[in-house]
Amino acid sequence: MSQPSPSPEPAAPPPQPSLPPFRARGPWWGGDLQTVRNPLLRARADLAPWPTERLTLALGDGDVLPAALHRPDAAGRPLVLLIHGLTGCEDSAYVRTSARALLAADYPVLRLNLRGAGPARATCRQQYHAGRSDDLRRVLAVLPAGLTDAGLVAVGFSLGANMLLKFLGEEGAVSPFVAAAAISAPIDLAGCSDAFLRPRNALYHRWLLARMRAEATAGAAEVTAKERAAIAAARSTWAFDDGFVAPRNSFAGAADYYARCSAAQFLPAVRTRTLVVHARNDPWIPADPYDRIDWAGNPWLTPAIVAGGGHVGFHGRGSGVPWHDRAIASFLDAVLAP
User: What is the largest CA-CA distance in the chain?
Assistant: First the structure.
């Protein structure tokens, strides 16, 4: 397991900013409807007012990550890096929606594709996983000059949020980010895997496993015959991780992968102002691991653990903009204020 970089302890941050309360917007009552609302409506935020600039980020080992950059007319705000979740990509509904909300607030935005995700499947032999935080270091090392002159912020969703929190803990006081936000992160990967195997999540599980199989074997993926057999034989996300993800990334098995990559253990070392958002009625990710965190022990973390919102849902009253996007904007305005 990677250890946080040794460095001088930075000065303690100011008091935690206040965030708007979350109240669910009808008819999206309950965690399941909050979770499936975007796929159900095929919601896709319009980013046309901010023309897309295509970037190609070479990771130094043959794999290349395509990314979408948008710049508002106003200048001077930090670049926000958006990191999608499992089987997502730059075009995932939640990524586009967050991009639109941040661009409307005059933040430049970079929608990243992780290794083998979406358009990156055609340009990558390898595949991302929940603990592949070194890829963030590689990305930051090859960003075009000038993009981060005003600073750099990261927002991660679901698996991408776990990866981000792990990175922040590893980097500690030398993190390149001036602020960050993690939305619906599976900070206990084993607990999340167990939750997916519950009978009430059978449809979710079947849907996600099919997407994981398709993503792992499409395009330029470099997959051996043995790995293809393991993927085909997997009847659960745990079996997929145990038979494919773990061995190809030098983990002893799914349990070892989960233990070494779960973000919860890295949170005490985070020294970046970080908003951590999670819903207690998330059908995929249990809230218990969040309750075990000593939030008071690390003033760099701002927990926003709310009763409702589902998984990367947070469709709340008072605005068509999801509550987590409004919370991110409020948080950034507070912590980046001069």
Answer: 56
Number of residues assigned to the chain: 338
Choosing from 207, 232, 261, the residue where a domain stops is 261
Contact 125, 223 (CB under 8 A): no
Q: What angle do CA 111, 116, 122 make, to 5 degrees?
A: 95
Return d(Cα 239, Cα 222) in angstroms, integer: 20
Using an 8 Å Cβ cutoff, are 134 and 261 in contact?
no
What's the CA angle centered on 321, arms 315 and 325, to 5 degrees? 90
Q: Are both 146 and 273 inside the same structural domain?
A: yes
Alpha helices, H only, 4-65: 30-41
Q: What are phi and psi of 90, to 5 degrees?
A: -60, -25
Query: Directed axis angle between helix 159-171 and helix 134-141, to 10°?
Result: 80
In three-state secondary structure terms, 81 is strand
CATH code of the domain containing 292: 3.40.50.1820
Q: Is residue 79 assigned to a domain? A: yes
Assigned domain for 303 exists: yes
pLDDT tens digits, one per residue of 56-95: 999 999 999 999 999 999 889 999 999 999 999 999 999 9
Q: Specify the 3-state DSSP secondary structure of 70.
A: strand
In degrees, rounded to 5, the angle at the alpha carbon of residue 137 between the alpha carbons of residues 135 and 175 is 135
Q: H-type helices in 74-145, by residue range?
A: 93-104, 134-141
Beta carbons of 66 and 120 less than 8 angstroms apart: yes
Whole-angstrom distance, CA of residue 119 vs CA of residue 111: 12
Q: pLDDT for 35-67, tens place per residue? A: 999 888 887 899 999 999 999 999 999 999 999
Distance CA 39, CA 297 (A): 38
Closest CA to 113 of 58, 60, 46, 68: 68
